[in-house]
């Protein structure tokens, strides 16, 4: 109970209601020495570990009417912003663009993958946004002072359960679905069993390592976030995050293995003699598998920095410097985002390549029916561009041969119209290289 000296400092409104607060709200607080008798449900429904701190907080809000008004506005704002999460996602407009291009054909496997990746991750974002409604939990600090505003998510049992234990499954499963895209693109050109097995094995290991994060968070028990004295159990939480850093090391290592495996499988296909003479932009624009390799190289170059940070965090756990905040989690997210963005870029460039193929085939068939049979195989129905470059080179060679023959024929039979024929032939040459 609060001392009379503290009660005397309350404003008149609080003095009139503090006794009723004790009577109506006491069941929502897990007071000192009652941890063992409180079950999981009571912890999730609790408002804190000190009802005295709650009354002091009520007195603080009553002292300034604007605080209560702002709190109500914050509730509305938080809910509204949570509903906007799908539109704030960095993948929203890319996903919408691909849906428009594919005429909202949801039956295509790639469109299903992209939609599942976006929707599941967005559900996680919405839940995380709603977690902003849980920003206060009333407890005592080590110095005996009241703490009401949250500094860490782990300080609120319900917020931890919703936004981490439950919500993390949406985030990481959404990521895992996006990680399948390089697998689908790479297996199309993997001709031997060893290559296919290595791709599936490395992808499976990467997926399992990611799932270990939300699974591990289930072991950070909400009933143990506070000591029996009602004080935030920071040592217990830090102990978990030491294991979390170890898991992060495993995720990064498996990600590097997955990226390197993709690079090795695609290396022979992409770095043949026929494509070495073309520059980076031409390869990136025309070859789907080359874009997947660029994505893999991005991970190989960027993720080791995060790996070093995670290892350092583990090493310093038993050191007085363990509380240093040198995490570069945002950097890891940037690397991952680049790899997920390649999915959308790859699909858009594949569609553009298909359209260019159709236009080129149409122009060629107008004068030479034979070249049209070559162009008909230019792009398959599954948007697989593994043979794109070779076919384009062969098609252009045939066009040049046929056009050269036609130019000589016209020249020999139309001597009286040399100027007109020259203009026409020049136009035809330009058409070949569009």
From TrEMBL:
Membrane-spanning parts: 241-266, 292-311
Q: Where is the composition biased (Basic and acidic residues)?
A: 424-434
Q: Which regions are flagged for Low complexity bias?
A: 414-423
Q: Which UniProt keywords apply?
A: Membrane, Transmembrane, Transmembrane helix
Q: Where is this region: Disordered?
A: 414-434
Q: What is this protein called?
A: Uncharacterized protein
Lineage, top ranks: Eukaryota, Fungi, Fungi incertae sedis, Chytridiomycota, Chytridiomycota incertae sedis
